């Protein structure tokens, strides 16, 4: 869909920005991608998100929308006649998807990040165990939510919860390399392992999924301890 009034403030390396980009791609919405410089905040960003002062920010018709999951929901509703529905249609399925999306951000992601910020092997082992436990819970959630279909929302296309978790897959690979531990293991999480491959190869995702080598180099700047 051709449009000239959509802008996205973000960074190529941000999983949260990637959520918004995937949603826009699913809806076939063209947009201007305004990349922030790492370590600084543009005047437009500060003006558009004066509360949190962080990316991503979607600007639609000069009106800013902040926070990644809220942006994804906004895109689904603002362009409801374009592309597939991102949120499930049934209120219960919608509530469950939002529950697990919050779990991913508030629990799973926090533990994942702790692996890169851990001080000492014991702290790292604890973080690895937490991620492994959380990932096994997400494996069960996928089986329950997908109902035998390829994606979390129980359909043949990417939905809200797929975006919420799938945006982390590049960073998950970086953490796996750092930790020397594979979290999406075919023996422990067979459904998620297959899902991850489908997600990364989807036309809405593949062109914007960061290269692992490039992402790893970026991670070394953000988490200096990796350089040791």
UniProtKB/TrEMBL annotation:
<keyword id="KW-0216">Detoxification</keyword>
<dbReference type="Pfam" id="PF02798">
    <property type="entry name" value="GST_N"/>
</dbReference>
<feature type="domain" description="GST N-terminal">
    <location>
        <begin position="4"/>
        <end position="83"/>
    </location>
</feature>
<feature type="domain" description="GST C-terminal">
    <location>
        <begin position="90"/>
        <end position="223"/>
    </location>
</feature>
<keyword id="KW-0963">Cytoplasm</keyword>
<dbReference type="InterPro" id="IPR040079">
    <property type="entry name" value="Glutathione_S-Trfase"/>
</dbReference>
<dbReference type="InterPro" id="IPR004045">
    <property type="entry name" value="Glutathione_S-Trfase_N"/>
</dbReference>
<dbReference type="InterPro" id="IPR045074">
    <property type="entry name" value="GST_C_Tau"/>
</dbReference>
<dbReference type="InterPro" id="IPR004046">
    <property type="entry name" value="GST_C"/>
</dbReference>
<dbReference type="InterPro" id="IPR036249">
    <property type="entry name" value="Thioredoxin-like_sf"/>
</dbReference>
<dbReference type="InterPro" id="IPR036282">
    <property type="entry name" value="Glutathione-S-Trfase_C_sf"/>
</dbReference>
<protein>
    <recommendedName>
        <fullName>glutathione transferase</fullName>
        <ecNumber>2.5.1.18</ecNumber>
    </recommendedName>
</protein>
<comment type="similarity">
    <text>Belongs to the GST superfamily. Tau family.</text>
</comment>
<dbReference type="InterPro" id="IPR045073">
    <property type="entry name" value="Omega/Tau-like"/>
</dbReference>
<keyword id="KW-0808">Transferase</keyword>
<dbReference type="Pfam" id="PF00043">
    <property type="entry name" value="GST_C"/>
</dbReference>
<dbReference type="InterPro" id="IPR010987">
    <property type="entry name" value="Glutathione-S-Trfase_C-like"/>
</dbReference>
């Amino acid at each position: 869909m051709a449009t000239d009034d959509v802008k996205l403030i973000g960074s190529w390396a941000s999983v949260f920005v990637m959520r918004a980009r995937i949603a826009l791609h699913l809806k076939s919405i063209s947009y201007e991608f305004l990349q922030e410089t790492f370590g600084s905040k543009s005047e437009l960003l500060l003006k558009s998100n004066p509360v949190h002062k962080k990316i991503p920010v979607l600007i639609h018709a000069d009106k800013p929308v902040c926070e990644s999951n809220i942006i994804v929901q906004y895109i689904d509703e603002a362009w409801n006649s374009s592309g597939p529905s991102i949120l499930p249609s049934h209120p219960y399925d919608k509530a469950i998807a939002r529950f697990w999306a919050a779990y991913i951000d508030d629990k799973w992601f926090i533990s994942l990040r702790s692996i890169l910020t851990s001080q000492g092997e014991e702290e790292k082992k604890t973080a690895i165990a937490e991620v492994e436990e959380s990932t096994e819970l997400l494996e069960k959630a996928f089986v329950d939510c997908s109902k035998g279909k390829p994606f979390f929302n129980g359909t043949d296309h990417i939905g809200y919860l797929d975006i919420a978790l799938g945006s982390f897959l590049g960073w998950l690979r970086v953490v796996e390399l750092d930790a020397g531990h594979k979290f999406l293991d075919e023996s422990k999480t067979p459904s998620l392992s297959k899902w991850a491959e489908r997600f990364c190869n989807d036309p809405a995702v593949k062109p914007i999924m960061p290269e692992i080598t490039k992402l790893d180099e970026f991670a070394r700047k953000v988490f200096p301890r990796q350089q040791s």
